Amino acid sequence: MQKVTLKELGQLLNATIKGDATLEISSVATLEDAVQGQLSFLANGKYRAQLEASQASAVLLSEKEAEFYQGNALIVADPYVGFARVAQLLDTTPKQALGIHPSAHIDPSAIIGEGVAIGANAVIEAGVILGENVQVGPGCVIGQDTIIGSGSRLWANVTIYHDVHLGQDCLVQSGTVIGSDGFGYANDRGNWIKIPQTGGVRIGNHVEIGACTSIDRGALSHTEIHDGVIIDNQIQIAHNVIIGQNSAIAGGTVIAGSSTIGKYCIIGGDCAISGHLSIADGVHVSGGTNVTSVIRDKGVYSSATIAMENKLWRRNTVRFRQLDELFSRVKQLEISAKGDE
């Protein structure tokens, strides 16, 4: 088990050390669950009451909160960011694969970089290029002419179709499918005619994609996921969607075809974004929101109704259906009032 001293963590985080700098830390935990040898953090003042009772050997604190704690501490500008960096340093997650398993099928034309690991029963098809230190978990399938950048990692049973480019230092969780056909059909007098999806998928560097997410290939041009994007579990990204740099999308969201999401956007869980629209940089869409039109300006956007008692919800639903009639009546009253002036 790796151990680091408070002094070493202080150098990593550019933190002010309060207490014993030689103290060794082996892992991280919450204030409530921490034991000796662990580092915790306080990022929200409402948990301040847990400080004194915590058994953590040291705590990450902001300067504002440090006055309320007499124990060992690392004082940083943002304790939650500090926690994330320490958690990375002490991460014990196993590698997705070790070496190249004898049951893996690798086409002779594939180019395999130095240090690549490929798990049991994985399939690497013709023309694939795997950069240095790529990890491919058991049961993964990587289709023809796909390129995976150095340091990227695929957990078990990821399927990547043909002509997909995945950048460097990406992480793809189990069950995800990248490059499947987009939902492209023409209707000929009631009969559906499939439109071949001949574009690819282009994914930048440092992108993370959650479990069981689907990213469709483009119809003609490519679907694009830019650098630093984080995508949660069970998300549908349709053909020709473009997601800008460092945007984040929470679980259960669906994005219809040919929509563009700007840079540094945050899309909450269970959102539905209609096709052929754009969302500006820096937009925050609350969970459960239906986006049906262009968003041109940075800001927070919401549309979901709050939970309420069923009887009240039923009455309000009836009132909602009467809005058009009510609007017409108000308009008529306004016209009558002007006539009486």
TrEMBL record:
<comment type="subunit">
    <text>Homotrimer.</text>
</comment>
<dbReference type="Pfam" id="PF00132">
    <property type="entry name" value="Hexapep"/>
</dbReference>
<keyword id="KW-0012">Acyltransferase</keyword>
<feature type="domain" description="UDP-3-O-[3-hydroxymyristoyl] glucosamine N-acyltransferase non-repeat region">
    <location>
        <begin position="23"/>
        <end position="89"/>
    </location>
</feature>
<feature type="active site" description="Proton acceptor">
    <location>
        <position position="239"/>
    </location>
</feature>
<keyword id="KW-0444">Lipid biosynthesis</keyword>
<dbReference type="InterPro" id="IPR011004">
    <property type="entry name" value="Trimer_LpxA-like_sf"/>
</dbReference>
<keyword id="KW-0677">Repeat</keyword>
<dbReference type="Pfam" id="PF04613">
    <property type="entry name" value="LpxD"/>
</dbReference>
<comment type="pathway">
    <text>Bacterial outer membrane biogenesis; LPS lipid A biosynthesis.</text>
</comment>
<dbReference type="InterPro" id="IPR001451">
    <property type="entry name" value="Hexapep"/>
</dbReference>
<keyword id="KW-0443">Lipid metabolism</keyword>
<dbReference type="InterPro" id="IPR007691">
    <property type="entry name" value="LpxD"/>
</dbReference>
<keyword id="KW-0441">Lipid A biosynthesis</keyword>
<comment type="function">
    <text>Catalyzes the N-acylation of UDP-3-O-acylglucosamine using 3-hydroxyacyl-ACP as the acyl donor. Is involved in the biosynthesis of lipid A, a phosphorylated glycolipid that anchors the lipopolysaccharide to the outer membrane of the cell.</text>
</comment>
<dbReference type="GO" id="GO:0103118">
    <property type="term" value="F:UDP-3-O-[(3R)-3-hydroxyacyl]-glucosamine N-acyltransferase activity"/>
</dbReference>
<dbReference type="InterPro" id="IPR020573">
    <property type="entry name" value="UDP_GlcNAc_AcTrfase_non-rep"/>
</dbReference>
<protein>
    <recommendedName>
        <fullName>UDP-3-O-acylglucosamine N-acyltransferase</fullName>
        <ecNumber>2.3.1.191</ecNumber>
    </recommendedName>
</protein>
<comment type="similarity">
    <text>Belongs to the transferase hexapeptide repeat family. LpxD subfamily.</text>
</comment>
<keyword id="KW-0808">Transferase</keyword>
